[in-house]
Amino acid sequence: MPDLIVQNLNQRHVAVDEGQTLFKAIQAAGIDWMHACGAKGRCTTCRIIVLQGMEHLGELSPAEQRYRNNGRLKDNERLTCQCILHGGDITGKVPEQTKLPHQSYS
């Protein structure tokens, strides 16, 4: 089973089931993660900065493509509510703008 490793959450490993979005896996692991639209791809608050393993994520969703086209999603960012991990681990981190005040970041 592939893992999401969240670098600035003390290298926390999150197991990601086949066909599961990163956001669902993060929630299942009991991690609080910013999300304003309820995981519907209507905002960018659940984004993650991908440091390694971008090739293991599926194609951009229409929502991600729209945000990428209008400059709200950088080339090294994905929306956790939209992307699915396929066949390999990735390492990412929570962007400064979406860190939660009650969460301890490393």
Automatic annotation (TrEMBL):
Pfam families cross-referenced by the UniProt entry: Fer2
Keywords: 2Fe-2S, Iron, Iron-sulfur, Metal-binding
The protein's required cofactors: [2Fe-2S] cluster
Example GO BP: P450-containing electron transport chain
Listed PROSITE patterns: 2FE2S_FER_2
Alphabetical list of Gene3D superfamilies matching this protein: 3.10.20.30
UniProt domain 2Fe-2S ferredoxin-type: residue ranges: 1-98
GO-annotated molecular function: 2 iron, 2 sulfur cluster binding; electron transfer activity; metal ion binding
Similarity-based family: Belongs to the adrenodoxin/putidaredoxin family.
Protein name: (2Fe-2S)-binding protein
Organism name: Pontibacter fetidus
Lineage of source species: Bacteria, Pseudomonadati, Bacteroidota, Cytophagia, Cytophagales
